[in-house]
């Protein structure tokens, strides 16, 4: 299968990595060559890590990397692709524009998917002349390690498109959860609700971030606590999702003030070195002040 991934950031490069390891020919496209090269370097590093941990052989890693080509121009990246997955920033207008641009250059039977974590797939797909070809493929970070993919069926997604999406996820060796196109789907809605309450507990002085996270990790077997996960996802991303869900579903998703303050201060989590934790070399080393 020919797979095109639009966006070479964290999610895009992860999706490209998973598809290439599964044996698909992959085209990774971003708007600047620098972004594409950064994405390819990230994939190479992840594959090297997999070899070191015995998850795949050196020859398998090299073969996967050989299946990925980088592009900056949209038309040659998407032309002839069986599946195009957009992984651009969480902006509805940007995603709608991307979908419309893609449709102008793909075959009639190509499936166009969005990796949105919370936006309406139906609204994104409304930019298409043939919205039945659109579906949500919500991957989780880090894509190479996470087993789940939500297949989000929009209002006009055809049965054939949904079946194609399920088969693709199965082929990646991941597990499908099929959901309707409700705000936040299943995972984001529940995940941000838990994270939001954890932030309010920090605000109220119930416990610090490390103890709240430890309670969920040790008491409920979560692999990562809700506040550390917020740092990994990005506080700005979590704030955008909460504001969208508040608009769609009401005040129970009102963003906590501590989240707003940190975002205004540029404390966005792991990517900036501080959020609810202080981060060094990609590891959380201590709760941040006030967390």
Automatic annotation (TrEMBL):
GO terms for biological process: fatty acid metabolic process. Transmembrane segments: none annotated. Residues 184-279 form the 3-hydroxyacyl-CoA dehydrogenase C-terminal domain. Pfam families: 3HCDH (PF00725), 3HCDH_N (PF02737). The record marks 138 as: Important for catalytic activity. InterPro entries: 3-OHacyl-CoA_DH, 3-OHacyl-CoA_DH_NAD-bd, 3HC_DH_C, 6-PGluconate_DH-like_C_sf, 6PGD_dom2, NAD(P)-bd_dom_sf. The keyword Metal-binding does not apply. Residues 3-181 form the 3-hydroxyacyl-CoA dehydrogenase NAD binding domain. This is 3-hydroxyacyl-CoA dehydrogenase family protein. It comes from Halorarum salinum.
